[in-house]
Specification:
The complex is a heterodimer of chains A (349) and B (91). Chain A is mainly alpha-helical and 349 residues long. The radius of gyration of chain A is 26 Å and the shape is elongated. In chain A, helix 11 runs antiparallel to helix 12. Chain A has a three-stranded mixed beta sheet with strand order 3-5-4, sandwiched between helices. Chain A folds into two domains: 171 residues, Rossmann fold, CATH 3.40.50; 158 residues, no CATH class. Chain A contains 16 helices and seven strands. In chain A, 54% of the residues lie in helices and 9% in strands. By secondary structure, chain B is α+β, with helices and mostly antiparallel strands. Chain B has a single domain, classed as Alpha-Beta Plaits (2-Layer Sandwich), CATH 3.30.70.20. In chain B, the strands form two sheets. A two-stranded antiparallel ribbon of chain B has the order 1-4. Chain B has a two-stranded antiparallel ribbon with strand order 2-3. Chain B is globular and about 45 Å long. The chains are: A mainly alpha (349), B alpha+beta (91). The interface between A and B is large, with 46 and 40 residues.
């Protein structure tokens, strides 16, 4: 089928359909094993930054000159969500080159813009493929696309469709409603970002383990067993902080205080209470130091979760950071001092 | 989304009713449903829900709505604080 020397047909393309601007690849609208594997890899943060498809014009079903044109980004997770949502429809899908970034972030960065969309309109000869002059843009692309600039650049009118691709079929049949226009942050949506938070957060954790190892060298007794038992308290404190800040925090977000660092600290405190139960032999300053570190780490990770939410403003996040970071820094220092002091006081035998 | 709130009185969103021509694009694009058009003018219903994405200001034809846009992401803000690392990204 349409083999050209040196080319390979992408697995998400099932056929080619003729149009006035040449042959257009027709998309599969169901996931293959390769799609599922790629989704898992991207969700784990393995090749999140290079998970792209080629920009351009694609067909879903058997679209004609009157069919709707839906616009999306070339991040494959986004592209997949849109094409699967459009199963059973006859529409055109115009994919903009956002360098593998989702629509919202690409809008902020300027790649999902009037210039970016019109570049693909002109490159693909869309004006010859369809007889109308309407593009359905994702609403979350409106922070990058100025509708009137798009009309000037390529003659197409921008219509802002629903926030979520899942709503596209209902939108195509019945038009827009309020529920389609509002962002959500459901339990499922919050849970979906946990793996990537854990995988991309490994560097500070390794750093914390290393610092804990250095601090554990100091204390009563220099035997390997003594150092190991001291390090174990700090390492478990670190893992508890990671669990509270990166797993519990997203799941419990709606029930936490609105200040992210405070919510993370509250969860971290609850997690730190496990330390005296696990290490009943350790001196209390050691436990207090490790526990305070659990609170600090969970608080910090909570603060970082602002980047995964769809409701924090840069002004709000910056204000919270300016208040929280000095406190967190002081607490980190205090935690280290308590930990080492406790280790000199003994009790880690 | 009404149950999700961050800090109050921080958003840079500003609205000049005099300049508004009532086109309703701000109400269309806002992902937090902050605007509504009544009697030919936009109204700000819920300023505290603003996340400063900038969609309203970008699409407002008369600059009646203005906001300093950006991403509310701690990692990104740290990168902008560090010298020589402006314009790096987090998503």
């Amino acid at each position: 089928m349409d083999d050209l020397p040196g080319y390979r047909i992408e697995h998400y393309v099932e056929a080619f359909v003729p149009s006035a601007a040449g042959r257009i690849p027709r998309l599969r609208t169901g996931p293959t094993a390769l799609d599922r594997l790629g989704t898992c890899r991207a969700r784990l943060g393995l090749d999140r930054n290079h998970y792209t498809v080629n920009p351009g014009l694609y067909a879903v079903g058997a679209p004609g000159p009157d069919s709707a044109v839906v616009v999306t980004a070339n991040y494959k997770l986004t592209f997949d969500t849109v094409r699967f949502a459009l199963a059973g429809r006859d529409v055109w899908l115009l994919v903009v080159d956002t360098r593998g970034i989702n629509v919202w972030c690409a809008g902020g960065k300027g790649t999902f813009s009037a210039a970016g969309v019109s570049e693909q309109v002109n490159k693909t000869g869309l004006d010859r493929v369809v007889s109308h002059r309407r593009l359905i843009l994702p609403q979350l692309g409106a922070n990058g696309v100025r509708a009137r600039d798009l009309r000037e650049a390529c003659g197409f009118e921008a219509v802002f469709g629903p926030v979520r691709a899942e709503d596209l079929p209902r939108y195509l049949d019945h038009g827009i409603d309020e529920a389609m226009r509002e962002v959500t942050f459901t339990l499922r949506e919050r849970a979906a970002v946990i793996p990537v938070e854990l995988v991309l957060g490994w560097k500070p954790i390794v750093g914390a383990f290393a610092v804990a190892a250095i601090l554990s060298l100091m204390g009563q007794g220099f035997s390997l067993a003594a150092i190991w038992s001291r390090w174990l308290v700090a390492a478990v404190g670190t893992l508890l902080g990671l669990f509270c800040g990166s797993v519990l925090f997203p799941l419990l977000l709606p029930r936490l205080p609105r200040t992210f660092s405070l919510g993370g600290a509250v969860l971290g405190l609850a997690g730190a209470l496990a330390l005296p139960l696990l290490f009943s032999h350790a001196a209390w300053p050691t436990l207090a130091g490790a526990g305070l570190w659990t609170v600090v780490l969970s608080s910090w990770l909570g603060l970082n979760f602002t980047g995964s939410t769809p409701y924090t403003s840069p002004s709000g996040v910056e204000r919270e950071m300016r208040r929280a970071i000095p406190v967190l820094a002081a607490c980190t220092l205090l935690a280290a001092i308590l930990f080492v002091a406790g280790n000199f006081a003994g009790g880690t035998a | 989304m009404k149950r999700y709130r961050h800090l109050e009185n921080v958003a840079t969103l500003a609205y000049d009713r005099e300049k508004c021509v009532g086109c309703g694009l701000c109400a269309t694009v806002c992902p937090h449903r902050i605007f509504a058009v009544r009697d030919g003018k936009a109204e700000v219903l819920d300023r505290e829900a603003c996340m400063e994405c900038g969609a309203c200001a970008l699409n407002c034809p008369t600059a009646a709505v203005t906001v300093t846009p950006g991403v509310g992401c701690a990692q990104y803000i740290i990168q902008t604080w560090l010298p020589g690392k402006r314009g790096t990204s987090c998503c």
